[in-house]
Write a structure and sequence with these properties.
Elements (H helix, E strand, L loop, with lengths): L6 H4 L5 H14 L5 E2 L11 H12 L12 H15 L8 E4 L2 H12 L5 E6 L4 H8 L3 E6 L10 H7 L4 E7 L11 H12 L4 E5 L14 H4 L7 E6 L12 E4 L2 H14 L5 H10 L6 H18 L14 E2 L10 E2 L2 E2 L3 H12 L1 E2 L1 E2 L9 E4 L4 H16 L3
Parallel strand pairs: 1-12, 3-4, 3-5, 5-6, 6-7
Antiparallel strand pairs: 2-8, 7-8, 9-14, 10-11, 13-14
Bound molecules: 4'-deoxy-4'-aminopyridoxal-5'-phosphate (PMP) and glutamic acid.
């Protein structure tokens, strides 16, 4: 049959974070000793109590569908968490649980975007945002936020990007890929702009607990007058090392929550029952020592990166990524092979240096590379050594 892919899907690119990771896993399976700093996935285990709650749910026969929006028990537990940790009051009906925050974000796009609606997306951005917006018919409007502003969008740039077609802005703090965290005064200034424009505010706060010496602030709590336009996205993957359980959620105004619930009831149905049982217990079992662990690794990695010629890395304040500017090595070559982009750099570094990373092009930031430091301390030391040897051979 003649190939007839939908116009919606025809131009979609595979997720760079997931494809570098699968390429790396293939190399590892072939016996190559690659240090995998590509995908953003905590290297520690799901809290035991949460994992056991999942096992117990299976053993007890909790193996059937739940409500499409997620169990009332979990939605109540999330509402209680939002109240106690974020100072945000939501009714359980305003919370919709999905198969990971990635799924939640897709649901959000489908619920609020019509064809041609613009979504303001500060770059560097997480690689899946523009694709999800486009699949839902929307148009990502990329607003560059460079190293000079700590990779954070300024109120001025935000104001300038807003048009009558703007339907939403998407803010991710702490950020993947830069690790930037919006501080209270910066959020207040953005809130000032958003107060004047009737747009949805999508907040992706999946890394909220992973902040180092700074406080995570939710715009929804800081500017309560904006809360009825906020779609607050969060999940269990990062803080609780539950990437494989596939559990995320949104807290939203009642009409949006209702629409997402209806959409989800036809698309995926309920999220995994046993994962939800584990999620309830996870919320009470965050291990704060992981923050110290990540901070120690961050310091080690950033110091090592900055010791390499042509590499400059700002100190990230949250998440578990370092996002150095490597434009100093663009135009050089490795054993005769030209490095004309971050993609070239990452490919050569993987092949010859055996360190896996993700090129900045995937995040709307050419000239940069993302390294995940959710790996063992010894892997960080090894990666820096390998990169040092790789850089010594650049000409
Ligand atoms: N948002 C951001 C910023 C992320 O880095 C991720 C990573 N996967 C997600 C959402 C989605 O996470 P998950 O689907 O595993 O909940
Ligand atoms: N969010 C992680 C990353 O950026 C996991 C992979 C993904 O979901 O894309 O690496």
């Amino acid at each position: 049959m003649e190939q007839r892919l939908s116009a919606r899907i025809r131009n979609i690119k595979p997720s760079a974070t997931m494809s570098v990771d699968s390429k790396t896993k293939q190399l590892l399976a072939q016996g190559q000793s690659v240090v995998n700093m590509s995908v953003g996935e905590p290297d520690f285990d799901t809290p035991t109590a949460a994992a056991l709650a999942g096992v117990k749910a299976i053993a007890n026969g909790q193996t059937k569908y739940t409500e499409a929006a997620g169990t009332l028990v979990l939605r109540k537990a999330i509402a209680a968490k939002l109240m106690s940790e974020n100072g945000l009051q939501y009714a359980p009906e305003q919370i919709i649980v999905s198969n990971g925050a990635k799924h939640t974000l897709y649901n959000v796009c489908m619920a609020i975007l019509d064809d041609g609606d613009e979504v303001i997306l500060p770059a560097p951005y997480w690689t899946s945002y523009p694709e999800q917006i486009a699949v839902a018919g929307g148009k990502p409007v990329i607003v560059a936020a460079g190293a000079d502003t700590g990779y954070k969008v300024t109120p001025r740039a935000l104001e300038q990007a807003i048009t009558p077609k703007t339907r939403a802005i998407l803010l991710n703090s702490p950020s993947n890929p830069t690790g930037a965290v919006y501080h209270e005064d910066e959020l207040a200034a953005l809130g000032e702009v958003l107060r004047r424009h009737d747009v949805y505010i999508i907040l992706d706060e999946i890394y909220e607990r992973l902040v180092y010496d700074v406080k995570h602030v939710s715009l929804a709590a800081l500017c309560p007058e904006l809360k009825d336009r906020v779609l607050l996205v969060n999940g269990f993957s990062k803080a609780f090392a539950m990437t494989g359980w596939r559990l995320g959620y949104v807290a939203a105004p009642p009409d949006v929550a209702k629409a997402i619930n209806s959409f989800q009831s036809h698309s995926t149905g309920s999220p995994s029952t046993m994962s939800q049982a584990a999620g309830v217990v996870a919320l009470e079992n965050f291990d704060p020592t992981v923050v110290d662990t990540f901070k120690r690794r961050r310091d080690k990695l950033v110091q090592g990166l900055n010791s390499l010629e042509g590499v400059h890395c700002l100190m990230p304040e949250g998440a578990f990524y370092a996002f150095p500017d490597i434009s100093g090595v663009i135009g050089r070559s490795y054993e005769g092979q030209a490095i004309n982009s971050a993609t070239d750099y990452c490919e050569l570094l993987l092949e010859h240096g055996l360190v896996a990373s993700v090129p900045g092009e995937a995040f709307g930031a050419p000239g940069h590379v993302r390294f995940s430091y959710a790996v063992a301390d010894s892997d960080i030391v090894e990666a820096i050594e390998r990169m040092r040897r790789f850089h010594q051979k650049l000409s």
